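ARCHIVE CARD
Drawer: 12
Card no.: 0347
Subject: one protein chain, sequence and derived structure
Cross-reference: see card 0346
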Amino acid sequence: MKKNVNETINPSTLDFLSILKQLYDFVIPKGNIEIPVRIFIAIFFLFLGTLTNILIPFLYGYSVDLVNKKEFSNFYLIIVLIGCYGFARFAKVFFDEAKQFVFIKVAQKSVRAAALFAFQHLHNLSLNFHLNRKTGGLSRALDRGAKGIELLLRFSIFEVIPVVLEVIMVGVVLWTTFGFFYCAATLLTVFLYGVFTFKLTEWRILIRKKMNESDENAGTKMVDSLLNYETVKYFNSEIKEINSYNNALKDYEDKAVKTRLSLTAVNLGQGLIISLGLFSIMSMAAYDIYHEKMSLGDFVVVNTFLLQLYVPLEFLGYVYREIRQSIFDMKKMFELMNEKLDIFDQDNAKNFKFHDGEINISNLGFNYNSRNIIKNLNLEIEGGKSTAIVGPTGCGKSTLTKLLFRFYDPHKGEISIDKQKLKDCKMDSIRSIIGVVPQDTIMFNNTIGYNLSYGNPNASIKEIRKVVKLCNLDDFIESLDLKYETIVGERGLKLSGGEKQRIAIARMMLKKPKILILDEATSALDSKTEKLVLDSIDEYFKNSTKIIIAHRLTTIRNSDKIVVMSKGKIIEQGKHSNLIKNKGLYYEMWNKQKEIKKQVI
């Protein structure tokens, strides 16, 4: 299912009808004939099952009347009726299972389509969205939303519709067979039961909502704490984290208890209404038997009808609550699906055509959370050359590279590569020729081999071993028991900072980008290993455009151009020797680092 960016629904206006409309698109996708056919067959089996359920009480009642006679006029007829009664009960089970079997593929395809669309949409959302979301809450919203789709379809098709059909049919049968008052008493009981259930369920939804919020909060705290395992250890904060998680669990516990107590109130009220209805109707039946207006078999028929009706009706209360909860859970997932895309391809966007990798940045301005990060910046980066960007922390170096990769769009000015504006090109075509090794190197919780080949899934073993050697990783990997099959842990927690950086550089090499961005890519390496890796990068990417961000100035002194930034602006640029002669900010930074190195020595 593909959705146009310009047709995105405002999440704040997402009402019940909007949810159903979106759900319909997932349940019955355009051009898929199989799904409507399956739905029709499932409803057909549903109708047959309901008719069979109406027939069962009559077969039972007639059997009772025949057995109740003092003399069996036809014993074989009784056996036939009892056999039909047993067969009808089996047929009801068969039709119920048949509709489930036919419909299960519809439900699962809908869940898969919705979950896949949500996952894809989340990947299309901007970096800013993900920086402001809590991972634990996000994953739970998707999980509950997907389950909500399945529950809504299953309960509405297999519980609500059959009960509604059965209530109508039972009402008609009771009226035509036993009289208006039996029908009226039954429908009145159903009506009171429904009103009571709906009213109290609305009250319970508010309580359940608070419980879910507490659950999400507890889950987010747990995930956040475990992801920051090392930080917790560094500050001896285990007790603090445990207490924080315990408080979140205690809050969830209190909300869960209130939710269960509210359910008890609903169940007691429902039980009282059904009991009173059953008492009144069976009293009428007993009265008619006493006055010889009904037979014992008729009494059994009425009783069986009511029991067959009330048993699913009791369950319907739970179904209604689950449907309401499913809609609430789906709403949260659909709100994520309808989150507006900040960064997207224009309708007339073209594939980027690479020439030599020349980058032009003109009058660039960018704000983040009302902070002016980049201010009227102009820069030319020559294709096939190395350009270093240095400056104090927070001067906008990393932000500039994120703008180049189109994680963000500038608020002013433009960026062009080979005289093609980024906004005029498809993002995939631009990102395919750019390789990035970021400051914070994150690994998938998978094997070393998987993380390496992520840069190029089609890379051969020979290619992988080549880049591993270039990044001085070969001895390290060979020393591991499982070698390339070693699991690196959550976010690469089992690896050191230097090991993660070298794996990140190696997988970027496998991508073979035309433009290379190294953002503090070797900051965790010792000087000897750093030189080996940087020499390998220079040789491997000797004809590529290289952008290097570094605090350690010795690593970039041989760059073709060095750009010095401060407070979002370029204050000087040139080769190392010229910048030293200028005695500006670069000169000060260079001398400070020399002094620190002398003190360490």
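Annotation on reverse: DSSP finds 18 helices and ten strands in the chain. The radius of gyration is 35 Å.
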